[in-house]
Amino acid sequence: MLRKYALFVGVAALGALVTSCGGDDTGTPTPSPTSTGTATPTPTPTQGQVDFDLQQDFSTESTNANYAFAYFTPDAGGDETFSGASRLNGNASISLALSPEVVTFAFPDLDDPATFDATDLVSASATVRSYARGSEKLVLELPYDHVLRVSYESQADFTRDTTDGVLRGERTSIFFNRPTVTTDIASDLAYTGSVEVVGGDPGTTLAGVISAPDVTFTIKEADGSVNGTIEIFRDVNGSPELVATLVFQRTTNSAGNVTGGVLDDQETFAGILTDADNNFVGNFAGAISGPNREELFIIFSISGSTDADNDDRVDADDDRRFVGSFIGKR
Questions:
Q1: Region Disordered: which residues (predicted)?
Q2: Is 160:83 a contact under the CB 8 Å cutoff?
Q3: Mean pLDDT, residues 28-52
Q4: Least confident window among 166-175, 207-216, 315-324
Q5: Over the stretch 45-91, which tens digit does the pLDDT of each residue have?
Q6: Per DSSP, what are the bridge partners of residue 140?
């Protein structure tokens, strides 16, 4: 099926993000979403083991472990609604220095890194360190020990179609340590953790109504396959409504060749997602992390795939999109 991709546009000078469903009159195109019909490049850390201690200095980089999303609020009043989202390939970096305190975050589509200092510090603990300055925010989240999630939020004046308003964009990158153990996986590995997910129907889905429950993913010893299910829900007047069911698994083509969902020799992976019942297609990528395979993370992205007239093209009015990540520990 041919996929109608919404162009992911960064308003670079303003630090905002949106898809073409709410295009900015002066925005400059930046990376388009990776195709959701095939497995995507796997994430890669660009240096050795890093001690992700939020109470001490560190610096690290990663590649192909990024996603971004945005919400729009009209100036004339009204609810904040989902505007667009994408997974992005490319390099990201994070550095934290405490004396003097400076934290710097670089993302693939940012012309200049986002930098905060001690005067911007809002809170600091062993698991979360957050900064804020005006409409900008930076959060470093360390759920366990070997996978760090960094999110940068910014706002900008924006015009979607002919409606003036404010666009709130967030860019997220994952940083991680590769396993150093060299022995084969001797038994199934189960990782339990939480899911961050955002998205919906642009201009319709309200901010804060999308969620996913905690989940367990299993790496099978027999074939190195990644197995688990993420269910995405929308809150409707206080009741959860199922939006999508994403099954992560080993996939093969008609010739029996593996097309995704299996560990490579670096213990990273990429795969394809299909939810025929709810008309979504997508992809995922991730890695086992930690010296002894203690943790696992996954980044995923799905798009609406409705083809009501059976012309092998996604219907023009199906702009639904979700992105997110899972971080778990065994």
A1: 23-48
A2: yes
A3: 60
A4: 315-324
A5: 866 799 999 999 999 999 999 999 999 999 999 999 999 999 999 99
A6: 129, 150
Amino acid at 234: R
How many whole angstroms separate alpha carbon 152 and alpha carbon 172? 6
CB 288 within 8 A of CB 180: no
CA 196 from chain center: how many Å?
8
Is the separation of the CB atoms in 76 and 189 below 8 Å?
no
pLDDT band at 40, cuts 50/70/90?
Answer: low
- Helices then strands, each counted (H, E), the chain: 0, 26
Bridge partners, residue 325, by sequence: 196, 299
Question: Residue 326 forms beta bridges with which residues?
Answer: 195, 298
Whether 302 and 288 have beta carbons less than 8 Å apart is answered as no
pLDDT band at 17 (very low <50, low <70, confident <90, very high): very low
Residue 219 to residue 231: CA distance in whole angstroms: 19
CA distances from 134 to 95, 116, 223, 301 (A): 21, 11, 50, 30
